[in-house]
Specification:
heterodimer, A: 441 residues, alpha/beta, Peroxisomal Thiolase, Chain A, domain 1, two-stranded antiparallel ribbon, globular, B: 431 residues, alpha+beta, eleven-stranded mixed β-sheet
Chain lengths: 441, 431
């Protein structure tokens, strides 16, 4: 598939543990958790009272005018800031490409955009209040929604442009506009795997020559009231309130009891190696291969043996021309939802075979929380840093591992890392894997 | 690239007909699928019309269940978008005659979709008691009091990935399963990307298409507030009038279109009936504004140019164009301009029609519905019309096949799909 070699020349992140790559990486090495009390809204009376939020987002520093924030969803703001950092980091802000801008594309993986309950609440209140005082309108039956009252009194309570925050591909559009990227643009979703698929799809586009540079990655913002209600009720959200919130996210641990919901964005500048060389760009690492697959099993539950993940990793290794023993570091997709952790453990141990062939493994969601559609893209950024610095961050909160993998705990693993594999797995049976390697230019 | 991609099965759920025969009769009969919104009382909305699918019963088209049952026994009906997707997928697989177990395990699925409709009654039931006039919803009180028992499964099921996941599960599709969200261009882009997967040898067989149902109260209201929709509430059947001088916006529609894409040798070996070859795909972004097209239609022109180059054909070889043709003042002008730019003198000779004049705009499903219209036109050698084209617009000066279907000999056709976010996709098919 890789007819052109694909490299990373820039990276940008906005995360609960740091709003630039340097801070993010240092926090991963230090094992500094991003989990803390929810700041975005009041949660008294609810459990959990914590989440993994991005703190002190400086949108104006990324060149985002205040008036635009009103029409951008939170995920779009995060993606925009991460993309700006990646663009600058790749040297493209200082030396913008002079050639045809249709050679530059944007490809984002995003998640679901829940309704804004604060705004909707105002509209619902107006709807219900008008209904209870106006004679002649339909009664307040619990099973139907009074669209007449909503149209007459509710709608005017909403921002006229509210829909723009909910059109999924506009996050990528804001980036394309700001960077004048007129090439291919795509917005995809595969739930928690979206960021991995977006990077893989972007690599395909560059490999086939449809673009020279693509800004690709994932963004998600699921610290929202509806997301927390939903995940708690489905049993996926951790609800422990007897320990330090930073100790709750425990992927691969026997006591794991759900994820800590989070938000973030990770964007990479993927570039054709020939193009990067021609402009004298610094090259961080090379994408050796990409694979993706599906469990074809269930919408809410994983295949017990993680069939999709096993297949995605195998395809990735095969396309990379690598064998399991060639992989020095493994970023696992464990989120601390027990059924998924078990399925991931099964798939990874099976695919990597003998104990000796299993690479040093980490689970960054123990530190970052679960950033959903952004999570795998953030792991890719960390993987590229791990190759650059030959260090693999440790997994936090791991006491009794359920996975027979060489999980790094305590202090970061230090040893030569020339190849790192990022695996991603999530709801809907989606799975993907990307193999990154040091680029011998 | 010498692997060719052919289309061997299609399935469609649309406001002008369900199943390809009914769909084609609707299109060639010039039947408008637009009417007053029937599923809820829209009389207090600025826009009260939409193109709804009528008389749809999931069980008539597939034995896939219309209700999702979670492992703890909770059961929630699937939203319309997902039901349409399941029906269209089953029709396409049957149409292609690939129903054997196991055949799909290495196939890919690339789907264009958006979120399913929010259940407003349910949302209102949990949000309203926690809300006040000034502050809107008090989140702490919502979180403390809301009973999310039914809401949570329902909310999970309106995730944009759900139609694709359910289709994958149904056929055992174990290859890549991807959903793209590029608004009005989504299913065209999904089809183009699936075509590449086959060309590049990632798979020999793929399902591609899209489903969407943005006819819900929030969607209609949201687009109306953006001033994107036709307000012709008193004459619904005449509201979607692409390229007509008195057009005033698009009409929201809904539906699903699914296509079976196959590597040509594989299709020939099994003696499959072939609708046509998917020969070209092009995409580009305007990088201009989030809702408006670039005034020179630069992205649209580039997408069309690259689709033609991809198919290795000259402009004159195009025999028919299915336009994006939304019926907004801006789109139809800009699309006409793009066709002039790319096709030059040939533009005036090539008939162009917009089937959105009949189907309304099915957003993420539109590209798939329209490519299916093109394949049927190719098979029948008849072009569906642009209805409601009564008063010519001097800025829209092509042959739009006004009001009546027309017999026409052609072997190659172009289908355009443009959208919010500056998305532009063009697909080329040939006999």
């Amino acid at each position: 598939m890789m007819s052109r070699r694909i490299v990373v020349t820039g990276m940008g992140v906005v995360t609960p543990i740091g709003n630039c790559v340097a801070e993010f990486w240092q926090a991963l090495l230090d094992g500094r958790s991003g989990v803390g009390p929810v700041r975005a809204f009041a949660v008294d009376g609810f459990c959990p009272t914590y989440a993994s939020e991005v703190k002190d987002l400086e949108t104006d520093r990324a060149g985002l005018p205040r008036r635009k924030l009103k029409v951008m969803g939170r995920h779009a703001q995060l993606a925009f800031c991460a993309a700006q950092e990646a663009w600058s980091d790749a040297g493209l802000a200082a030396h913008p490409p002079v050639e045809d801008r249709s050679r530059i594309g944007v490809l984002l993986g995003i998640g679901m955009l829940n309704a804004d309950v604060v705004e909707l609440g105002r509209a619902f209140y107006a709807t219900a209040h008008a209904r209870s005082t106006s004679a002649g309108l339909s009664d307040a039956s619990g099973d139907s929604f009074d669209t007449v009252a909503f149209g007459r009194w509710g709608a005017s309570e909403m921002l006229p442009l509210w829909l723009l925050r909910h059109i999924p591909n506009l996050a990528a559009a804001h980036i394309s506009i700001a960077l004048d990227a007129q090439g291919p643009s795509n917005t995809i979703t595969t739930g928690c795997v979206s960021g991995a698929n977006a990077l893989g799809e972007a690599a395909r586009l560059v490999a086939r020559g449809a673009a020279d540079i693509i800004l690709a990655g994932g963004a998600d913002a699921r610290v929202s009231p509806l997301a927390m209600l939903r995940y708690r009720d489905l049993g996926w959200l951790a609800t422990r309130d007897d320990i330090d919130p930073a100790a709750v996210s425990a992927p691969f641990d026997a006591a794991a009891a759900g994820f800590v919901t989070g938000e973030g964005a990770g964007v990479m500048v993927l570039e054709a190696l020939d193009h990067a060389r021609a402009r004298g760009a610094r090259v961080y690492a090379e994408l050796a291969g990409y694979g993706a697959a599906n469990d074809a099993h269930d919408v809410l539950e994983p295949d017990p043996e993680g069939r999709g993940l096993a297949r995605a990793v195998s395809v990735c290794l095969e396309r990379s021309g690598l064998q399991p023993p060639n992989i020095d570091a493994l970023f696992s997709p464990a989120t601390a939802v027990p059924a998924f952790d078990r399925a991931a453990a099964s798939a990874l141990t099976r695919t990597f075979g003998s104990l000796r062939a299993r690479p040093a493994t980490t689970a960054t969601r123990s530190i970052v929380g679960h950033t959903h559609a952004a999570s795998a893209a953030l792991d890719c950024v960390a993987a590229v840093k791990s190759i650059g610095e030959s260090k693999l961050p440790a997994t936090l909160n791991l006491h009794h591992a359920i996975a027979d993998l060489p999980l790094v705990t305590g202090t970061p693993y230090a040893g030569d890392i020339s190849t790192a594999l990022v695996s991603a797995y999530g709801f809907g049976g989606h799975a993907a894997a990307l193999a990154w390697q040091r680029c011998c230019a | 690239m010498n692997r060719h991609v052919v289309i061997t099965g299609v399935g469609v759920v649309s406001p002008v007909g369900i199943g390809i025969e009914e769909y084609w009769r609707g299109l060639t009969g010039g039947r408008s699928g637009v009417g007053r919104i029937s599923r809820y009382d829209a009389s207090a909305f600025p826009v009260q019309i939409a193109a709804e699918v009528r008389g749809f019963m999931l069980a008539d088209y597939t034995d896939a269940p219309g209700t999702f049952v979670a492992s703890d026994g909770r059961s929630v009906p699937l939203d319309l978008r997902t039901q349409y997707a399941l029906a269209a997928a089953d029709m396409s697989v049957r149409d292609a005659g690939i129903e054997e177990c196991g055949v799909w395990s290495d196939a890919h699925l690339y789907f264009g979709a958006g979120e399913g409709g929010n259940d407003l009654a349910m949302l209102s039931r949990i949000v309203t008691p926690a809300s006040s006039r000034v502050d809107g919803c008090d989140v702490a009180s919502l979180l403390a009091r809301a009973d999310a028992r039914l809401f949570s499964v329902q909310d999970q099921l309106i995730e944009p990935t759900v139609p694709a996941s359910l289709i994958a599960r149904r056929y055992g599709i174990g290859g890549e399963v991807t959903t793209c969200l590029t608004a009005c261009a989504a299913s065209a882009q999904a089809i183009g990307e699936a075509m590449r997967r086959i060309q590049e040898g990632d798979c020999d067989l793929a399902l591609a298409g899209g489903a969407h149902a943005m006819t819900t109260p929030l969607d209609v209201l949201g687009f109306a507030m953006l001033s994107a929709l036709s307000c012709r509430n008193d004459a619904p059947a005449r509201a979607s009038r692409p390229f007509d001088r008195h057009r005033d916006g698009f009409v929201l529609g809904e539906g699903a279109g699914v296509l079976v894409l196959e590597e040509s040798e594989r299709a020939r070996r099994r003696g499959a009936r072939i609708y046509g070859e998917l020969a070209g795909y092009g995409t580009a972004n305007d990088a201009y504004r989030v809702t408006d097209m670039h005034p020179d239609a630069r992205g649209a022109a580039r997408a069309i140019t690259s689709a033609l180059a991809d198919a290795g054909i000259d402009a004159e070889e195009i025999g028919y164009i299915n336009a994006h043709g939304t019926s907004t003042v801006e789109n139809d002008r800009a699309e006409t301009l793009a066709l002039h730019h790319v096709l030059g003198d040939a533009a005036r000779e090539i008939p162009v029609s917009s089937t959105k004049s009949m189907t309304g705009h099915a957003v993420a499903a539109a590209g798939a519905l329209e490519l299916i219209a093109v394949l049927l036109a190719l098979r029948e050698q008849v072009m569906p019309p642009t209805i409601n084209l009564e008063t010519p617009d001097p800025e829209c000066d092509l042959d739009y096949v006004p009001n009546r279907a027309r017999a026409h000999e052609f072997t190659t056709a172009l289908s355009n799909s443009f959208g919010f976010g500056g998305q532009n996709v063009a697909l080329v098919v040939r006999q």
